[in-house]
C-alpha cells in the first residue's frame, strides 16, 4: 500500500511582469518554473538502505514506521516472548554481549561511500566526536581485514572516525561500501572492554561520505565481506589439538 | 510496505532540478536512529544465570551469580563445618549443600538463537582451576569442547569442577573469576 502526499508551492512573484514592462522582446530576466521531485523513501529502499537481516537477531530491529530502530528491551514487540525466549529483563550486567547480524547497509547511490556511525547522545542530529564508547556500546561490521587491523587496531563502526578526523584526512577510518554493494550484518557489542553498560535510550547517527571527498579515499580497499565480530579470539576457530588428557573425577 | 511522500516545489528560475537531484548522487548523508538497551540482573537476563539450591555455595550477589566454596551456610545442612577444599585434589560440586535436584547453577538461553556454553578463566596461576560441567552428562565445558547447542528457552544445569593441584593451603580464601561464555552455534 502506497500513500502519497503532494505538496506544491509556486513561487514566481519576483520575475513575473517583466515581459510587460520591457515590451521589446528583449529580457533582462526570465522566470521558468522547474519542478523538483524529492521522494522520501523508507529505510529499506533509500539511497543508503538500512534493512534488517534474515537472522534471528533481526528481532531486535524495529521496522515499524520508515526509520528502523534497535530495541534490545523488547518494547517494540507485542510481548517479550516475540523477541526473547522467556521473561527477560535485559542484557546481563557486567558481561560482554555481542548481538551480530542486526541489519545491512546498502549503497544505492551513484558514488562509492565510507560508512561510519556516531553517538548522538543529545539527539540533535549533529555529529559528536566524543571520547568513544562511554556508554558501553559499539557497532561493528565489514571485514576485519589486514588493512583495518593495521591502521586502526581493529574494525569498528562506532566513533571510528574520530581516530583519523573527518574527510580530507589521508586515512578514512570507516568502512567503504561501493555503489550497489552491501555492508552485511552490522552488529552491536555491549559492555566488556567497552566499559559498563547501563540502560540506554540514545540516538546513533549513521553517516555515509563519498569516497571522493577523502584525499586518499581511492586507496582504501572496499569491504563487503562478513565481519568476524568475535575479533581476534575467535571461538569458531577449529579447536586446538586435543592432548587426550582426562581429568580423573574424585569426590565431592 | 513502503510509504512514499512526493514533494514537488516550483521555484522561479533559481534552481534547476537536474543540477541538484537529477543524478541521484549523494556525497554525504547522515541518518539518526534510536537504540534502546535495558540491563538486568543475571537471573532475568538474556543469558539467565541462576543459582540452585540452598547452602550458599551458589548465590545471586549484587545482581550477579557468585559462588562460595564451601557454602556460607554449609554447616546448617551438613553439620560438618568444612573449612575448605583439600589441596592437590579435583572436586566436583554438582549441587548446593541442600538441594533435591541436581545442579549448582543453571544457564538458560533466553536469546534468539541456539548457543554453546563453556567457561574460561583468565587468571590461573597459583589459584584453583575452575571448570563448568554439565551435571547430566558429566562433560566439562571448555572452549575446545563446549556444550551441545542449547536451544532458546532451554536451560543447562551445571556444576563446578575445582582442581586444587599445586595450590597451597592458606587462611585467606582464593578469589577466582569465572567467565561464562555463550556463543551462537555455528551453522
On the 0 to 100 scale, the average pLDDT of chain B is 81
List unreliable stretches of 5+ residues of chain A: 1-25, 125-133, 142-155, 161-171, 226-252
Query: What's the SSE pattern of chain B?
Result: EHEEEEEHEEEEEE
**Strand segment tally of chain A:** 12
Number of domains of chain B: 1
Q: Indicate the structural class of chain A.
A: mainly beta
- Average pLDDT of chain A, rounded to a whole number, is 64
Order of helices and strands of chain A: EHEEEEHEEEEHEEE
Overall, the morphology of chain B is elongated
- Termini separation of chain B comes to 31 Å
The tally of strands of chain B reads: 12
Q: Which quaternary structure do these chains form?
A: heterodimer
Choose one word for the global shape of chain A. globular
Number of helices of chain A: 3
Unreliable stretches of chain B? 1-24
Number of helices of chain B: 2
C-alpha Rg of chain B (nearest Å): 27 Å
Question: Approximately how much helix is present in the residues of chain B?
Answer: under 10%
Q: Tell me the structural class of chain B.
A: mainly beta
Which sheet architecture does the biggest sheet of chain A show? Answer: 4 strands, antiparallel
Please characterize this protein's 3D structure:
The complex is a heterodimer of chains A (252) and B (187). Chain A has 252 residues and is mainly beta. Chain A has a domain at 46-219. In chain A, 6% of the residues lie in helices and 29% in strands. Chain A has 3 helices and 12 strands, in the order E-H-E-E-E-E-H-E-E-E-E-H-E-E-E. Chain A has a 4-stranded antiparallel β-sheet with strand order 3-7-11-9, with no helix packed on it. A 3-stranded antiparallel β-sheet of chain A has the order 10-8-12, with no helix packed on it. Chain A is globular and about 70 Å long. Chain A starts with 5 loop residues before the first strand and ends in a 42-residue tail after the last strand. Residues 1-25, 125-133, 142-155, 161-171 and 226-252 of chain A have low confidence and may be disordered. Chain B is mainly β and 187 residues long. Chain B has one domain. In chain B, strands 4, 7, 8, 10 and 11 form a 5-stranded antiparallel β-sheet that branches. In chain B, strands 5-6 form a two-stranded antiparallel sheet. Chain B is elongated and about 75 Å long. Residues 1-24 of chain B have low confidence and may be disordered. Classes of the chains: A mainly beta (252), B mainly beta (187). Chains A and B meet through strand 1, strand 2, strand 5, strand 6 and strand 12 of A and strand 1, strand 2, strand 3, strand 4 and strand 7 of B.
Amino acid at each position: 500500500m502506497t500513500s502519497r502526499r503532494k505538496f506544491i508551492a509556486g513561487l514566481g512573484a519576483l520575475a513575473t511582469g517583466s515581459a510587460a514592462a520591457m515590451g521589446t522582446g528583449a529580457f533582462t530576466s526570465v522566470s521558468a518554473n522547474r519542478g523538483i521531485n524529492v521522494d522520501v523513501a523508507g529505510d529499506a529502499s533509500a539511497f543508503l538502505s538500512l534493512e534488517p537481516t534474515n537472522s534471528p537477531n533481526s528481532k531486535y530491529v524495529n521496522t515499524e514506521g520508515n526509520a528502523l530502530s534497535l530495541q534490545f528491551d523488547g518494547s517494540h514487540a507485542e510481548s517479550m516472548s516475540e523477541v526473547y525466549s522467556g521473561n527477560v529483563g535485559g542484557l546481563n550486567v557486567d558481561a560482554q554481549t555481542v548481538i551480530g547480524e542486526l541489519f545491512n547497509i546498502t549503497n544505492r547511490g551513484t558514488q562509492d561511500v565510507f560508512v561510519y556511525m556516531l553517538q548522538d547522545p543529545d539527539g540533535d542530529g549533529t555529529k559528536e566526536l566524543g571520547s568513544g564508547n562511554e556508554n558501553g556500546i559499539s557497532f561493528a561490521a565489514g571485514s576485519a581485514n589486514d588493512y583495518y587491523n593495521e591502521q586502526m587496531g581493529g574494525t569498528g563502526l562506532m566513533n571510528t572516525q574520530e581516530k583519523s578526523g573527518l574527510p580530507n584526512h589521508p586515512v578514512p577510518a570507516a568502512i567503504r561500501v561501493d555503489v550497489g554493494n552491501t555492508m552485511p550484518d552490522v552488529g552491536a557489542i555491549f559492555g566488556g572492554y567497552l566499559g559498563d553498560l547501563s540502560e540506554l535510550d540514545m540516538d546513533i547517527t549513521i553517516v555515509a561520505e563519498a569516497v571522493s571527498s577523502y584525499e586518499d579515499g581511492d586507496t582504501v580497499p572496499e569491504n563487503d565481506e562478513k565481519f568476524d565480530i568475535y575479533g581476534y579470539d575467535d571461538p569458531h576457530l577449529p579447536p586446538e589439538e586435543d592432548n587426550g588428557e582426562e581429568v580423573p573425577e574424585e569426590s565431592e | 510496505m513502503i510509504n512514499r511522500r512526493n514533494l514537488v516545489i516550483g521555484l522561479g528560475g533559481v534552481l534547476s532540478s537536474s543540477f541538484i537531484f537529477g543524478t541521484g548522487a549523494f556525497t554525504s548523508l547522515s541518518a539518526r536512529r534510536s537504540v534502546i538497551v535495558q540491563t538486568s540482573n543475571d537471573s532475568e537476563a538474556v543469558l539467565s544465570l541462576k543459582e540452585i539450591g540452598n547452602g550458599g555455595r551458589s548465590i545471586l550477589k549484587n545482581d550477579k551469580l557468585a559462588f562460595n566454596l564451601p557454602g556460607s551456610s554449609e554447616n546448617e545442612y551438613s553439620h560438618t563445618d568444612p573449612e575448605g577444599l583439600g589441596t592437590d585434589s579435583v572436586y566436583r560440586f554438582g549441587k548446593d549443600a541442600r538441594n533435591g535436584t541436581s545442579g549448582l547453577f543453571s544457564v538458560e538461553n533466553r536469546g534468539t538463537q541456539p548457543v554453546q556454553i563453556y567457561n574460561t578463566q583468565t587468571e590461573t596461576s597459583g589459584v584453583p582451576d575452575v571448570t563448568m560441567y554439565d551435571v547430566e552428562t558429566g562433560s566439562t565445558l571448555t572452549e575446545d569442547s563446549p556444550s551441545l547447542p542449547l536451544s532458546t528457552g532451554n536451560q543447562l544445569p551445571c556444576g563446578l569442577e575445582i582442581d586444587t593441584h599445586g595450590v597451597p593451603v592458606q587462611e585467606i580464601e582464593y578469589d577466582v573469576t569465572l567467565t561464562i561464555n555463550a556463543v551462537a552455534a555455528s551453522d
